[in-house]
Amino acid sequence: MGDRTDFPKTARVAAARNAKSNLSSAQNPPLILASASPRRLALLKQIGITPERVDPADIDEATNAGELPRDLALRLAREKAVAVSPRHAGAFLLSADTVVAVGRRALGKADTNADALSFLKLLSGRRHQVHTGITLITPKGKIISRVVSTAVIFKPLDMHEIRAYLKSGEWHGKAGGYAVQGRAALFVRNIQGSYSNVVGLPLFEVGNLLSGNGFDVWKD
């Protein structure tokens, strides 16, 4: 008799807990992605997170005098988030900015063949850093920023490889003039750190940042 009496009670407690959990999940505030990058959107979807809305920030991305690449990535990510946040009160807002650096020199986004050619020649046979600044603004207005850095080592590139890559066009608009998730994977001898960071968004760190501040990253 004791077993038959205890089981329904246990079931009721479990059901109540599940209902509470489901209610909490259902109340998850929306996530806004303050980035125009299709790669960042795709990376978030890869881990099962689809932002409620993509709302890119329109800010000046010029480097300040004497600013180090890591500091630049952090500042731009924060400025993007702050610029967009007034339009999304009560939401989680995520922004990011990626900077490719050789030493103290930040390489911008390649807009022309000449840009990409210059960047690839510089990166050939060398180790460089990819810094991604991420900023999260919570529904209560708390601002948290991080920088994730990854070291990438290119093999020496010959002009045949560089010209063929330029012809592919996938370098256009990419920091440092290459896309590691594309044909430029042929150039990469070694990556030390987060691969997704080189693509444009460090997923491990972003996931921890979101879940640590009340966003349910496992919500279906």
Task: Write the topology of this structure.
Blueprint: H1 2-26, E1 31-33, H2 38-46, E2 53-54, H3 69-84, E3 92-102, E4 105-107, H4 113-123, E5 127-137, E6 143-154, H5 159-168, E7 188-192, H6 195-199, H7 203-211
Parallel strand pairs: 1-2, 1-3
Antiparallel strand pairs: 3-4, 3-5, 5-6, 6-7
How would you describe this structure to a colleague?
- The protein has 220 residues and is α/β, with parallel strands linked by helices.
- Strands 1, 2, 3, 4, 5, 6 and 7 form a seven-stranded mixed beta sheet that branches.
- It is elongated, with a radius of gyration of 22 Å.
- The protein starts with a helix and ends in a 9-residue tail after the last helix.
- The chain has one domain: Alpha-Beta Complex (Maf protein), CATH 3.90.950.
- Residues 1-7, 11-16 and 19-25 have low confidence and may be disordered.
- It is built from seven helices and seven strands; from the N terminus they run H-E-H-E-H-E-E-H-E-E-H-E-H-H.
Number of domains: 1
Could you tell me the CATH topology label.
Maf protein
The CATH first-level class comes to Alpha Beta
* Count of DSSP strands: 7
Largest sheet, described in full?
Answer: 7 strands, mixed
Strand content of the residues, in percent? Answer: 15-25%
List segments where confidence is low: pLDDT < 50 over at least 5 consecutive residues. Answer: 1-7, 11-16, 19-25
Roughly how many Å apart are the termini?
A: 39 Å
Q: How would you sum up the global shape?
A: elongated
Radius of gyration from the CA trace? Answer: 22 Å
* Global structural class: alpha/beta
Mean pLDDT: 90
Distinct helical segment count: 7
Architecture (CATH level 2) name: Alpha-Beta Complex
Portion in helices: 25-40%
Order of helices and strands: HEHEHEEHEEHEHH
